[in-house]
Amino acid sequence: MENKKLVVGNMKMNLTASEINKYVKEIDKKNYNEQVVFCPSSLYLPYFVGKSYKCGIQNIAATDLGAYTGEISIKQVASMKIDYAIIGHSERRAYYHETDEVVRRKVELALQEKVKIILCVGETLEEREALKTYKVLKKQLTTALKGLDIANNKKIIVAYEPVWAIGTGKVPTNSEIEDTIAFIKDIVSAICGFNLKVLYGGSVNDANIAKLNEIPNVDGYLVGGASNSVEKFNKIIEVVVNQ
Ligand code: PEP
Predict the structure, then answer these.
(1) 56 pocket-lining for ligand 1 (C-beta < 6 Å)
(2) Residue 1 counted as domain residue
(3) Is 118 in the pocket of ligand 1 (CB under 6 A)?
(4) 168 near 131, Cβ under 8 Å?
């Protein structure tokens, strides 16, 4: 598993109960291994636990257990045997005002449990056009990771998701992704003293995955919209897992 690529589906707030039942029936026929991670709406997570594949929650509370209506604590996530938690997704940062400091707090809480962390970072279009991509990534990574006691480096995976590429059909070139991921890996190893896996996310689909999968330093993909279609997601998984 160490050097195998991951394919993570961030299904966001999609699919109703009948649709998710059909979805789970279909994916259960595929015998996916632990390289495949499904992150459905939290309500549906119990359908995904204890299977041949893995599952993750899309967000966690920035607080421990307590009187926080509507929130889900990482302790609850761990107690439900959920494998991963996405932290710092750009939709959380943009729509729910999650700052780098809030993201850091969530990482700290998640590190106390056996749940693996998928830490999302990425620049907006405005930041990219102002040539601030590396500066933004460095700040996001430094705030989230600096000084943490990360005893087990396999617990954290970084997902590079340019905000302007999410749900837009726009994708950076392979060499842009390769360069940015190399930068992220350098920063992470300077901060933590070791390397972390880095995924790419942003408009990955069944039509562009073969080309994206040629990038040498990518450790997997975080797939949003396309993961809600069993057919499309299966094609992506086949390219990455059977490479
Ligand atoms: C995401 O939201 O993590 C994502 C990558 O979305 P999409 O694949 O739809 O761009």
Answers:
(1) no
(2) no
(3) no
(4) no
